[in-house]
Specification:
about 750 residues; alpha/beta; Dimethylsulfoxide Reductase, domain 2; seven-stranded mixed beta sheet; six-stranded mixed β-barrel; globular; binds ligand MGD; binds molybdenum atom
C-alpha cells in the first residue's frame, strides 16, 4: 500500500509516506467506546487513567443524544462547549470542525471559540491598524510581485521550507520552494532574523542575524529610531497614508519616558549589536525592501506588538503598497501564502450561525473550564465564562495544541461529559468519556482546495472505512435525527448531494467572474481542475497606496493607524495605543531567567501536521533516543554535560518532559528548540515521556486585546536524565480499550 503524489506537484511532501501506515495504524479507534467509570458511575476524575468499554453504535449514539439533551435542558445551549478548535483534515465537506459546529448550531447552539492558535493575536490587532486582518487570513503581496521588484527581504522568523508542506484545505501544488528559488535567481538578498539558522534553506544564501526570542519589537524600534534620527523616513507617506505618527515619534525619541528607543537601546534587549541594527535600517531604506514576519512572532506574550511595529516600520520606510515592498506576514509560514491566485471562490461548506451567540477567545479554554462565571476582557469588551457541562470535540486535539497541559488536565475534570470524534486514540480521545471512531479522508469522498491554491481536486474514496468507523457527517446526521434537527443540519442531502451542491455554488461564483468550470460529473471524472492564473501581480494595499481617498482603509481614520484612538479608549496597559516594547512575562532578559535560563522555542514539526501522524514512520524516523528531538547550542549542552543522543529532562515550574538531544551550532546560545506534536504521554508522577513541550508552555493571553496564545514565551532549564529512560507509552493501545464480544457480532462491518 502506498500513496502517490499528485503528478503536477513540483514538491510533494514526504509525509505522504506516513498515510498508509496511519490509516491502518494500531492506534486507530476501531469501534465506539465509553470510558468505564463514566459508564458505570458518571465519574469525572479518572480521565486519562481509565480504560474503555467498546459499545455498539446504537448504544453510543443513544448516550450522546441523551447527554446533549440533558445538558441543554439543565444549562441551556451555552452549557455545551463546541468550538472544537483544530485542523481536522483536508477536504472541505468532511471538515470535522465545521461539521460539529454546524450540528450543534442546528440543535440550538453552543459556546463557540473565536480566533485561532495560528494568528490569533494578529486577527484582533490588525483590524484596529489596517481595518482588516486579510494579511493573515487572505492575501499578501504575491511572490510574482516580490520576484519582479523586491531587492531585499528581511524575514523575521525566517522562510522555513518545512512549513510549506501544509495548506488548510489541501495543497495541489507545493509552491514555496519554487518561489524562493525564483526570488533567489532574481538576485534578491535575504536577511533572516531568527533564533535558528535552520529557518532559511541553504540555497537562499541568507545572512543570519540571531535574535533573542520575543524581542523583535525592540529591534524594529531601534531601526525606526535610526530612520528618524537620520531623516531616512518617508514623512510624506506618513502624512498622506498614516495617522498618529506624532505620538509614536515622541515615544521613539524618548520624549515621554526619557528613553530614546535607539539602536543601542535595542541592542541591549535583542542581542544584535547597534551597528548591525543601524545598517539594517539604512539598507532597508535604500532599496525596495519587504519586511515579512512569520506567524510565530505573534504567538507569544504581547504578540500584538511585533505585528503592529512591523507595519509602523514599513510605513516609515514608505513602501507599503509598492510592488514587492512594504510588509507582509506568513510568506514562510504555510504553503500558498503569496502564491499568485486569481480572486475566485474555492469549495466551501457552510457552518451556519450559532443561535446561542456566545464564544470565548480560542486560547482561553482552561480559564473557561476553571472559572465558570469568571470575568474576562477581550478587545474592548467585558464578558464572563459560561458554565460548561458537556465538551464536544471533533477534528482537534487540545492535549496537543493548548498550553500548560498539566493545568488543562486538572480543569478537564470539571465538565460532566466529554465526547470526542477522532480516527486515532489521541491524548484527547483517551481523556474523553464517549469516543466515536471517524473515517479518514481516504475512506470518503470530498472536495479539496483552498483560497491559496490554484487546484481544486476530487478526493475520491480510496478504501473502505476501517473498523466500524463512520463519517462525522453520518454520525451527526443520525444524532440530528434523534435530536429533532435533521432538516436544519442535513438539508436533506447525502454526501454526494452535498458535494454537488458545493461544486454548484463554486462554479456559479467562478462564472460570475467569467471563468467556466466543468460540470460536477466531468470534474469528478477528471479528478482535478486548475484555475486560470491571475491577470496581474497582487500588491497588498496597492489600491490604497495609489489613491487613499478613493480606497480608504476600514479604520476610524481611513488610514494606517500608528496610533489608535479606539485602542486608547480601552485603557489597556498590556496593549497601549501605539506599538510599544513590552517585556513578555518570560524571556531571556526577565527575572525568571535566573532560575530557568533557556528560552524554549516550539516550532511546527517538519515531519507531521501538529500531532497528526506522530506514530507514523516519517515522524518516528526523526526521533532521538526514542522521543522528540531537542536542538541545543553546543555551549549550552556542554555546560549541562549533555552530548548528542542523550536523554534530557526539560523543566520549569509548570511541568517537565523528556526529549532526545541533538547538538546544533545553528541554534543561538540561550535558546533550545523542539517541535510541537509529540503525543502527550505523562507518567503517573506527571513526567511527560514523549517530548510534548506544551507541558511547559505559558497559558496566558497575549494581552486583553487579542487574548491569543502565548505559546512561544517560555523559559526552561534542561538537565541530563541519568536514570533509565522510561518507554513512551502513547502509541500503545493494547489492554487499554476492552472489546465486548457481545457487541462485535452486532456491528456494521
Ligand atoms: N507550544 C505550541 N503549541 C502550539 C503551537 C505552537 O507553535 N507552539 N501551534 C499552534 C497552532 S498554530 C495550531 S494550528 C494548533 C494545532 O492544533 P490541532 O489542530 O488541534 O492539532 P492536530 O494534531 O492537527 O489535531 C487535529 C485532530 O483532528 C483529527 N482528525 C483529522 N481528521 C479528522 C476527521 O476527519 N474527523 C475527526 N473527527 N477528526 C479528525 C486528528 O486525528 C487530530 O487528532 O496547535 C497550536 N499549539
Ligand atoms: N510541516 C508542517 N508545516 C506546518 C504545520 C505543521 O504542523 N507541520 N502547521 C501549519 C500551521 S497550522 C501554522 S499556523 C504555520 C505556522 O507557521 P509559523 O508560525 O511561521 O511556524 P513556526 O515553525 O511556529 O515558526 C517559524 C519560525 O519562527 C521562529 N521564531 C520563533 N519565535 C521567534 C521570535 O520571537 N522571533 C523571531 N524572529 N523568530 C522566532 C522559529 O525559529 C521558527 O522556526 O505552520 C504551518 N505549517
Ligand atoms: Mo496553526
Amino acid at each position: 500500500m502506498r500513496c502517490e503524489p499528485f503528478a503536477a506537484d513540483p514538491a510533494p511532501s514526504p509525509m505522504l509516506r506516513a498515510m498508509p501506515a496511519m490509516v491502518y495504524s494500531p492506534t486507530r479507534i476501531m469501534r465506539p467506546a465509553v470510558r468505564k467509570s463514566w459508564l458505570e458511575e458518571r465519574d469525572r476524575t479518572q480521565r486519562g487513567s481509565d480504560s474503555f468499554v467498546e459499545v455498539s453504535w446504537n448504544d453510543a449514539l443513544k448516550l450522546v443524544a441523551a447527554e446533549l439533551q440533558r445538558v441543554r435542558a439543565e444549562r441551556g445551549p451555552t452549557g455545551i462547549f463546541g468550538g472544537s478548535y483544530g485542523w481536522s483534515s483536508a477536504g472541505r465537506f468532511h471538515h470535522a470542525r465545521t461539521q460539529v459546529r454546524r450540528f450543534l448550531f442546528a440543535g440550538g447552539g453552543c459556546t463557540d471559540q473565536v480566533g485561532n492558535y495560528s494568528w490569533g493575536a494578529a486577527q484582533f490587532i490588525l483590524p484596529h491598524v489596517l481595518g482588516t486582518y486579510e494579511p493573515v487570513a487572505g492575501r499578501v503581496t504575491d511572490w510574482a510581485s516580490v520576484a519582479n521588484n523586491t531587492r531585499l527581504i528581511l524575514a523575521f522568523g525566517g522562510l522555513a521550507l518545512k512549513n510549506g508542506q501544509i495548506a488548510s484545505g489541501g495543497a495541489g501544488e507545493h509552491s514555496m520552494e519554487k518561489w524562493l528559488r525564483a526570488a533567489k535567481a532574481r538576485g534578491i538578498e535575504f536577511i533572516v532574523i531568527s533564533p535558528t539558522r535552520a529557518d532559511a534553506p541553504d540555497f537562499l544564501g541568507a545572512h543570519w542575524l540571531p535574535i533573542r526570542p520575543n524581542t523583535d519589537t525592540a529591534l524594529m524600534l531601534g531601526m525606526a529610531h535610526t530612520l528618524l534620527a537620520e531623516s531616512r523616513h518617508d514623512a510624506a507617506f506618513l502624512e498622506s497614508h498614516c495617522s498618529g505618527f506624532e505620538p509614536f515619534r515622541r515615544y521613539l525619541a524618548g520624549d515621554a519616558d526619557g528613553s530614546p528607543k535607539n539602536a543601542a537601546w535595542a541592542a541591549a534587549i535583542c542581542g544584535i549589536d547597534a551597528g548591525s541594527i543601524r545598517s539594517l535600517a539604512r539598507r532597508a531604506a535604500g532599496t525596495r525592501s519587504l519586511i515579512t514576519l512569520a506567524w510565530a512572532l505573534q504567538r507569544a506574550h504581547r504578540g500584538e506588538q511585533p505585528y503592529w511595529m512591523a507595519i509602523a516600520l514599513a510605513a516609515m520606510l514608505g513602501q507599503i503598497g509598492l510592488p514587492g515592498g512594504g510588509f507582509a506576514f506568513g510568506h514562510g509560514s504555510l504553503n500558498g501564502v503569496g502564491n499568485p491566485r486569481a480572486e475566485l471562490p474555492g469549495p466551501e461548506f457552510p457552518t451556519g450561525k450559532n443561535p446561542a451567540a456566545r464564544a470565548i477567545p480560542v486560547a482561553r479554554l482552561t480559564d473557561m473550564l476553571e472559572s465558570p462565571g469568571g470575568a474576562f476582557e477581550f478587545n474592548g469588551k467585558r464578558d464572563t465564562y459560561p458554565d460548561i457541562g458537556l465538551v464536544y470535540w471533533a477534528g482537534g486535539n487540545p492535549f496537543h495544541h493548548h498550553q500548560d497541559l498539566n493545568r488543562l488536565a486538572r480543569a478537564w475534570a470539571k465538565p460532566e461529559t466529554i465526547v470526542v470524534h477522532d480516527s486515532w486514540w489521541t491524548a484527547t480521545a483517551r481523556r474523553a468519556d464517549i469516543v466515536l471512531p471517524a473515517t479518514t479522508t481516504l475512506e470518503r469522498n470530498d472536495l479539496g482546495g483552498s483560497s491559496r491554491d490554484n487546484y481544486v481536486f476530487a478526493m475520491q474514496r480510496a478504501i473502505a472505512p476501517v473498523g466500524s468507523s463512520r463519517d462525522d457527517y453520518d454520525i451527526f446526521s443520525e444524532l440530528a435525527q434523534r435530536g429533532g434537527c435533521a432538516e436544519a443540519y442535513t438539508e436533506a442531502r447525502s454526501e454526494s448531494q452535498w458535494l454537488r451542491a458545493i461544486w454548484r455554488v463554486m462554479r456559479a461564483g467562478c462564472a460570475e467572474k467569467n471563468v467556466e468550470l466543468p460540470d460536477f460529473d466531468a470534474f469528478w471524472e477528471q479528478g482535478w481542475i486548475r484555475l486560470p492564473p491571475p491577470a496581474r501581480d497582487y500588491v497588498l494595499f496597492g489600491h490604497f497606496r495609489t489613491d487613499p481617498a478613493a480606497h480608504p482603509l476600514n479604520t476610524r481614520s481611513g488610514k494606517i493607524e500608528i496610533f489608535s484612538e479606539v485602542i486608547a479608549s480601552f485603557g489597556y496597559d498590556d496593549c497601549p495605543p501605539h506599538p510599544t516594547w513590552l517585556e513578555p512575562a518570560e524571556w531571556l532578559g526577565s527575572e525568571a531567567a535566573r532560575r530557568h535560563p533557556l528560552h524554549l522555542i516550539t516550532i511546527q514539526p517538519p515531519d507531521r501536521l501538529h500531532s497528526q501522524m506522530d506514530p507514523g514512520p516519517v515522524a518516528q524516523a526523526n526521533k532521538v533516543a526514542g522521543r522528540e528531538k531537542l536542538r541545543m547550542n553546543p555551549g549550552d549542552a556542554a555546560a549541562r554535560g549533555l552530548a548528542d543522543g542523550d536523554v534530557a529532562r526539560i523543566h520549569n515550574d509548570r511541568g517537565a518532559c523528556l526529549a532526545g538531544v541533538r547538538i546544533d551550532a545553528g541554534v543561538m546560545p540561550g535558546v533550545a528548540i523542539i517541535a510541537t506534536g509529540a503525543w502527550y504521554d505523562p507518567a503517573a508522577d506527571g513526567l511527560e515521556r514523549g517530548g510534548n513541550p506544551n507541558v511547559l508552555s505559558l497559558d496566558v493571553g497575549t494581552s486583553r486585546l487579542a487574548q491569543g496564545p502565548s505559546a512561544l514565551s517560555m523559559l526552561v532549564e534542561i538537565e541530563k536524565w541519568t536514570a533509565a529512560a522510561p518507554a513512551v507509552r502513547a502509541y500503545e493501545v493494547r489492554g487499554f480499550s476492552t472489546r465486548s464480544p457481545a457487541h462485535q457480532a452486532a456491528e456494521t462491518p
